[in-house]
Amino acid sequence: MCDPFGRSDPDSVIGYGDENVHEHNYIFFFDQEPIHLNYHMATFEKVRANNGDLHWKNDQKIGAICTSERDSDNVDALCARFGWKSHYYFFHGWAALDWYRGYDKTFLIQPIDQRRPTKTFIAPNRIIAGERQHRLEMLYWIFRLGMTDNHISCPETCPAENISIHDAIAPLKSKYPDIEQVFAAQQLPINFAGETDHPMHSCWLSLFDQCADSMLYLVTETVATGRRHHITEKTFKPIAMGMPFVLVGTRGSLKYLRSYGFKTFGSFWDESYDDIEDDTKRIEAVARTLKQLEELGPEYRNAIFHSASDVVKHNWNHFYNGGFEEILWAELKAMLNDIESNS
Predict the structure, then answer these.
(1) Best exposed site among 19, 141, 184, 223 by fewest CB in 10 Å?
(2) Could you read off the pLDDT of 293-319 as tens digits, one per residue?
(3) Boundaries of CATH 3.40.50 in the chain?
(4) Domain at 94-323: CATH code
């Protein structure tokens, strides 16, 4: 596995057990981070090198990888290259249940029926460079379509990559010729009230006032490109906060979430973006959906918000009252049985 949490470089790879015990197989748990073959191949090569002297079984070395990506081209490519078998479970579902436990017993979250949001959406943005450029694309559309009168954050320098936002948008110029002018017109950084330097909030809930004042939560997931399903704790923030949401993720992310018993909001606004194969067009479609809601005005948006409350409450109850956890347990047990039968 990789240790500590969040690292995925070759030096983070560790193993457990007595070095004098000769194992005959191995499983690499790469279940925290999404797989980026251009970044992580050295990590996978190290795992194979570390286990190069394992016993042979039926003329093959026995290796496997356990990920939090489902239906993934990247996982398929790794298994083809290294002869691994793949296993999957929803790691970030478990993480969200752990990190956001107990908030349902507090008074931090305003009851849904008491809210009268004045803004269309809240859109936190922290890491915007590297493999997170889809967040810059989403911000481009927010700025270009004049939706800045919402609860938005945007750093001037990516806190993880230490790259200026103006350098980070450079690779997007061929796709969006006016992106430099659009970003230059903004006064950056954009911070939430009381915040500076865009602090990391992954493992707890926050921004309670801004969320209560927003019709929906714009989730910009960790990955939003390619064929794979990989959503994280970010998608569960609006669920735990009792909010509707729009999701910037890979194609089929809403369908993937519904497979775990949650409901989404296609009865209240257009969710056809989830079916768009082209990543760029899908992000633009999300922006157009937000713009349509923005143009409705506050009274109509409030009516939609309260009409969606049954879906919001279903998701909240499913998350906090055991339904989601029951599905995760069944999935985890099935995965462990599959590992045992292939050992």
Answers:
(1) 19
(2) 999 999 999 999 999 999 999 999 999
(3) 94-323
(4) 3.40.50
Q: Is the pLDDT of residue 148 over 60?
A: yes
Q: How far is CA 205 from the centre of its chain?
A: 15
Identify the pLDDT of residue 259. 98
Q: Between helices 323-341 and 309-320, what is the axis angle to 10°? A: 50
More confident residue, 283 or 63: 283
Q: What is the DSSP letter of 137?
A: H
**What pLDDT score does 59 carry?**
56
Nearest to 328 by CA among 339, 315, 319: 319
Helices (H), 58-204: 73-82, 91-99, 133-144, 165-168, 179-184
Beta bridge mates, 124: none
Per-position DSSP letters for 7-56, written without gaps between them: --SGGGB---S-TTS--SEEEEEE-SS---HHHHHHHHHHHHHHTTTPPE
Prediction pTM value: 0.94
What SS3 class is residue 215?
Answer: strand
Other Cβ atoms within 10 Å of 75 Cβ, number: 21
What single letter denotes the amino acid at residue 240? A
Per the rule left: phi > 0, alpha: psi between -120 and 50, beta: everything else, 127 is beta
> Which tens digits make up the pLDDT trace of 20-43?
555 678 899 999 999 999 999 999
Record the tokens describing residue 231, joined without a space: 């959503």
